[in-house]
Design goal:
Elements lengths: L2 H14 L20 H8 L3 H8 L8 H10 L4 H10 L16 H9 L4 E6 L4 E4 L1 H7 L12 H7 L12 H19 L3 H13 L1 H7 L11 E6 L3 E12 L4 E7 L5 H23 L1
Antiparallel strand pairs: 1-2, 1-5, 3-4, 4-5
Helix pairs in contact: 2-3, 4-5, 7-12, 9-11, 10-11
Protein name: Helix-turn-helix domain-containing protein
InterPro entries: Cro/C1-type_HTH, Lambda_DNA-bd_dom_sf, MLTR_LBD
Organism: Aeromicrobium fastidiosum
């Protein structure tokens, strides 16, 4: 691990970004160029102290999970992300199979969709990036690792994982998830990640195993999804999925037309989330 070079690289990348590049407003009294350390730390999901130690060349070796999160926050290209990993003493991410690197243009799209919940996921249903409204609606999935990084693994194996979806719709959600994983498995079943995931689900979830045996592929996804949220109650959102086949990734947008009840609830949820952040700042 080259701590000095890593510190300098992070500093330079942070200074090269403008607040608008990551969906933030510049605000008054901003003297230094680029993002503030606390902004990078918040967007990455790490403590301000830990990020400060990275830039001061006095941190322990960051994990690959933390490096991936930093690469997304700093809008690094694939080559820059590889460089970041090497500076931190890790090999560059394997390019075989599905990529976990989210292109900066997709991250920029997420930042602009401030009245919709939007996220990027891999072809094994690992959430790779979320905008703020997605976190408020569905929870923050940035800290998951191993098999639990896959939302489909959690859906079929973890108690309560299906509770945010209206009960009558859960079976159709399950069918769509299994069909998507079946298509991924057919395309690259020689890759360890999809094999481990499917084998684990077959062993741990009777529901998954029963649907898998049907050999369904291309099940029609729900165009509207009904969520149950503890703060705003039930809301029905439109669902749009955009695929980027080269990286095995999907951009999923959950929104509602202005003037509808669901749109009002999404905006209420955003306001409640901002109030929560303000309260945390006061507590600090």
């Amino acid at each position: 691990m080259d701590r000095d070079a890593l510190a300098d690289f992070l500093l330079r990348r942070r200074e090269a970004l403008k607040p608008a590049d990551v969906g933030l407003t510049a605000g008054p009294r901003r003297r230094a160029p680029g993002l503030r350390r606390e902004e990078v730390a918040h967007l990455t999901g790490m403590s301000v102290d830990y990020y400060a130690r990275l830039e001061q060349a006095r941190s322990p070796q960051p994990s690959t999970q933390m490096l991936r999160a930093l690469a997304r926050t700093l809008r690094l290209s694939r080559d820059e992300s590889d460089h970041l990993h090497r500076l931190a003493g890790h090999p560059a991410p394997d390019r075989v199979g599905s990529s976990s690197h989210v292109r900066p243009v997709l991250l920029h799209v997420l930042d602009q969709l401030d009245d919709c919940a939007a996220f990027v996921c891999s072809d094994t249903d690992e959430v790779l990036a979320q905008n703020r409204l997605s976190v408020l609606l569905q929870g923050d999935h940035s800290g998951a690792s191993g098999l639990s990084a896959s939302s489909s693994y959690r859906w079929f194996t973890q108690p309560g994982a299906q509770d945010h979806v209206v009960a009558e719709d859960r079976h159709e959600h399950s069918r769509a998830r299994v069909a998507d994983l079946r298509a991924t498995w057919a395309r690259r079943h020689q890759d360890d990640d999809i094999r481990r995931l499917v084998d684990a689900l077959l062993a741990e979830s009777p529901e998954f195993a029963e649907i898998w045996e049907r050999h369904e592929v291309g099940v029609k996804h729900l165009e509207h999804k009904r969520f149950v949220h503890p703060q705003v109650g039930q809301l029905t959102v439109d669902c749009e999925t955009l695929a980027t086949d080269a990286d095995g990734q999907r951009l999923i947008i959950l929104g509602a037309a202005p003037g509808t009840e669901a749109h009002g609830k999404l905006q209420l949820l955003r306001v409640l989330g901002e109030q929560s952040l303000d309260e945390q700042s006061l507590d600090a």
